[in-house]
Amino acid sequence: MVTDAIVNCYEVLGVTRGATAEEVRAAFRLRSHMFHPDKYENYAEPLRGQLVAEAVKEFKKLTGAYEILRDPVRRAAHDRELARGVRVAAPATPARRARATEPDARRTRRAAPPPSEEPTREPNPRILVRPERLDFGIVSPGAIGQLSLRIENVGGRTLFGEVACDKSWVTLSDRNFISNQVVILANLNTSGLHAGQNYTARITIKTLNGGDESIPVTVRIAAVAEPQLAGVPSLVEFGEAVRGRRKVRTITLTNSGTGVLSGTVKTLLPWLSASEMDFRGNTVSLDLIADTSSLVPGEHSGKVVISSNGGHRTMTVMVKVATPVTGEALAPRGLVEANDDAVNRVASAPPGADPAGPLPRDVQRALLARIQRLEPETDWEGDFLAAIAQLVRAGRPLARGELAKVYEIEARAAGK
Fold first, then answer.
1. 3-state SS, one letter per residue, for 334-397
2. What is the CA radius of gyration of the chain?
3. Domain 9-111 maps to which CATH number in 1.10.287.110, 3.30.450.40, 1.10.150.20, 3.40.630.30?
4. Is 72 helix (H, G, I), strand (E, B) or coil?
5. What residues of the chain score a pLDDT lower than 70?
6. What is the CA angle 274-279-282, rounded to 5?
7. Structure confidence by residue, pLDDT tens digits, 276-309
């Protein structure tokens, strides 16, 4: 059987074309251990079964590549195939090779199935890492810090991978992952670093089936007393938003050095703005505002550059614009347009009273739909909305104060 494209065995194992036999063997051992069945014992069904099935597919692909590259004859043939750009075929038996050499063109044409008969292939995983670099900026000796790194699978199937850093002053929250989206926290500890020096490190993300990435990490240790910009996240996610709405995320800039911190904020996209373009102070709250009015449905990203007398930092910001659904816009005042009377009726009941039994099904569904679309700005609001949703699911009447708070959050969201 001929595959749809060249299967590059070097890419499968993550080695270069000039890798030695020992390097090929080491790469196979490093990657194959992640497919051991014991790694999935802590996952509940049906996820465990899905992961095992995915691991079996990847292990076959890994083993096939290793079998080719460990054999000098097959490796040389594979190199020739890659150089010619031909599609890689499964090894042929003697009988198949004899038939393939026959000069009968009609037989050759019959041997190839028509395109419509080829099975549909699920796309391979493909890794995407953001941001492309991590910069802790200027920090004082002994300082600590933390930046975020987002790893995402923009292909198909499930992504298997490992994360490592080549320097001990950066530690990672996770060492391996089996997921299509994960956020890795890079923690900085400068206790062993010297003042006045610049340091670099490299975070390596190796996946078994979606490619590899390498992310540079930099930090400067201040030599003298000076302002030092801190509190700047490397990644700010606005989450999902309905087109036409504004979303706000607040960050706090701080001075971890001495003196007074001052600087400017520059957004590099028209849909992204900041509440303060110039700042001065050692603790500055800054609102980042994403206006989705001009954005099409899908994921969008941009950059925010902060320049200051305590260093320069760049933030990656991301927002996902949802596809609008006709008739689902938020009401300016009320969770359910057609059922406000019913909502107010159940809300007005005195404590312990049941004016009309459980909430009607249509009111219950509409209330839940409205509540679930609201986006809290604080942890307290998130807990409050979760508790209200639980009451609604149970058919419990809402107090007027609870309903008023929901109206308040809804009205704020409608105004953004």
1. CCCCCCHHHHHHHHCCCCCCCCCCCCCHHHHHHHHHHHHHCCCCCHHHHHHHHHHHHHHHCCCC
2. 29
3. 1.10.287.110
4. helix
5. 1-5, 34-44, 46-48, 50, 86-122, 208, 224-225, 324-362, 379, 397-401, 414-416
6. 120
7. 889 988 888 888 888 888 888 888 888 899 999 8
